[in-house]
UniProtKB/TrEMBL annotation:
<dbReference type="InterPro" id="IPR036250">
    <property type="entry name" value="AcylCo_DH-like_C"/>
</dbReference>
<feature type="domain" description="Acyl-CoA dehydrogenase C-terminal">
    <location>
        <begin position="247"/>
        <end position="373"/>
    </location>
</feature>
<dbReference type="Pfam" id="PF08028">
    <property type="entry name" value="Acyl-CoA_dh_2"/>
</dbReference>
<dbReference type="GO" id="GO:0003995">
    <property type="term" value="F:acyl-CoA dehydrogenase activity"/>
</dbReference>
<dbReference type="InterPro" id="IPR046373">
    <property type="entry name" value="Acyl-CoA_Oxase/DH_mid-dom_sf"/>
</dbReference>
<dbReference type="GO" id="GO:0005737">
    <property type="term" value="C:cytoplasm"/>
</dbReference>
<keyword id="KW-0560">Oxidoreductase</keyword>
<dbReference type="InterPro" id="IPR009100">
    <property type="entry name" value="AcylCoA_DH/oxidase_NM_dom_sf"/>
</dbReference>
<protein>
    <submittedName>
        <fullName>Alkylation response protein AidB-like acyl-CoA dehydrogenase</fullName>
    </submittedName>
</protein>
<dbReference type="InterPro" id="IPR013107">
    <property type="entry name" value="Acyl-CoA_DH_C"/>
</dbReference>
<feature type="domain" description="Acyl-CoA dehydrogenase/oxidase N-terminal">
    <location>
        <begin position="24"/>
        <end position="104"/>
    </location>
</feature>
<dbReference type="InterPro" id="IPR050741">
    <property type="entry name" value="Acyl-CoA_dehydrogenase"/>
</dbReference>
<dbReference type="InterPro" id="IPR013786">
    <property type="entry name" value="AcylCoA_DH/ox_N"/>
</dbReference>
<dbReference type="Pfam" id="PF02771">
    <property type="entry name" value="Acyl-CoA_dh_N"/>
</dbReference>
<dbReference type="InterPro" id="IPR037069">
    <property type="entry name" value="AcylCoA_DH/ox_N_sf"/>
</dbReference>
<comment type="similarity">
    <text>Belongs to the HpaH/HsaA monooxygenase family.</text>
</comment>
<dbReference type="GO" id="GO:0050660">
    <property type="term" value="F:flavin adenine dinucleotide binding"/>
</dbReference>
């Protein structure tokens, strides 16, 4: 199966990218076991994802990109996750190139991203070390969870800044400043230790960078927008599209079990007429519908504010907190739905040949991500109450 990339001079519309993602999903489902066994995305799958336009969907129209809205990007990721969670995860992470471009000078970004289907991945938390040198920094460190690191073009990594061997304070008073640094994938060493419960196909390996020179202009901070021409220049934008993955997996699991139930009998009684089956399916459908509504409702309200020229600061406390809370809820509800469906079909679910086995492991693993942790609840709750959020960035707070 091949999907040709759209030409740069004719960016696909949102509907085209979504249609391509939906068309690719059955093929991803067929190859899900292969993806998992490889513990990374095969090269031809990466090419197919490029062909959908998913990696360019964050580039704005000034770049010649399709400039998909936040809700449209979630729908694309959701469609891919319906086929395979790992492929969708890598696609979501890799599609942030257009977002990162807005935090770089336009001329620098144009030089770096000559192809709108460029894939960027990495780890944003500042765990590396960046020593100031003339013209830029010398970057070193080891980072974890480099999803898609085996097939990317650029790697973005967070690091603390040092000057003359000493921690450099930030202009706003932080005792140790940090920034994000972008290096070509060729400057990165991948450490193949990705053996996990689920999400195996993401290839989220550790990686190291050793004494690599990074020009000043290839560093960035989410509190400084260089190119504000697009709609996604708020500091939490890279988090918005992740709910598409659990939503897509939950939908796939429900459709699978509904089809399975339709053709089964037990003791001469159709499963479809079994009260427990009926109630479980109905409860799961209700939970998914409510959760999806929460995600898209929060994003639509945000879009209304941004399209009117506002920022995250123009949201009410409730509206702002709804963004990280809806993300977290999508992960936890998807895991709950898959668990209930797994229990419902009993021994038919325990074999590795069953997609429920993979969905169980995938949703369990993805719920270990920071976006699904109590740290998010604390931060949203603190914001609602006027307290101090532990993870400010999930609310788009950078100062």
């Amino acid at each position: 199966m091949t999907l040709s990339p759209s030409p740069v001079d004719a960016p696909p519309a949102a509907a085209d990218i979504l249609a391509r993602a939906r068309a690719l999903a059955p093929h991803l489902r067929e190859r899900a076991a292969e993806i998992e066994n490889a513990r990374r995305l095969p090269d031809d799958i990466v090419d197919m994802l490029r062909g959908t336009g998913v990696y360019r969907m964050g580039f704005n129209r000034d770049w010649g990109g399709p400039e998909l809205s936040s809700t449209e990007q979630v729908e694309v990721i959701e469609a891919l996750a319906y086929g395979d969670a790992s492929a969708a995860w890598c696609a979501e992470i890799g599609s942030h190139t257009g977002l990162f471009a807005t935090y770089l000078d336009r001329s620098v970004a144009r030089e770096m991203f000559t192809d709108l289907d460029t894939i960027t991945t990495g780890a944003l938390f500042p765990v590396g070390r960046a020593d100031r040198v003339p013209g830029g920094y010398r970057l070193s460190g080891r980072w974890t969870f480099g999803s898609g690191i085996t097939h990317c073009d650029w790697v973005i990594s967070g690091a603390f800044i040092y000057r003359d061997g000493e921690p450099e304070p930030s202009p706003d008073g932080d005792p140790h400043d940090s920034r994000l640094f972008m290096v070509p994938a060729s400057d990165v060493t991948v450490i193949d230790q990705w053996h996990t419960t689920g999400m195996l196909g993401t290839g989220s390996c550790d990686y190291t960078i050793t004494d690599v020179f990074v020009p000043e202009e290839r560093s960035l901070s989410f509190d400084t927008v260089r190119d504000p021409s697009g709609p996604h220049t708020q500091p939490e934008a890279f988090m918005r599209y992740m709910p598409g993955i659990p939503l897509g997996v939950a939908r796939a699991a429900l459709d699978h079990v509904r089809e399975l139930v339709t053709g089964r009998e037990r003791g001469g009684v159709r499963w479809a007429d079994n009260t427990k089956v009926q109630v479980t399916i109905a409860e799961c459908e209700a939970d998914l519908a409510a959760t999806r509504h929460g995600v898209f409702g929060a994003l639509r309200r945000l879009s209304e504010v941004l399209e009117a020229g506002g920022t995250l600061d123009d949201l009410t406390r409730d509206e702002r907190a709804a963004l990280p809370l809806s993300r977290l809820h999508s992960f936890r509800v998807a895991r709950s739905i898959v668990n209930r469906l797994y229990d419902l079909v009993q021994t038919a679910a325990i074999h590795r040949s069953s997609p429920l086995d993979r969905w169980l492991r995938d949703t369990t693993t993805m719920c270990q991500h920071v976006f699904a942790q109590d740290r998010i609840l604390q931060s949203a709750g603190a914001h609602l109450l006027g307290g101090t959020p532990e993870f400010r960035l999930c609310l788009g707070l950078v100062k």
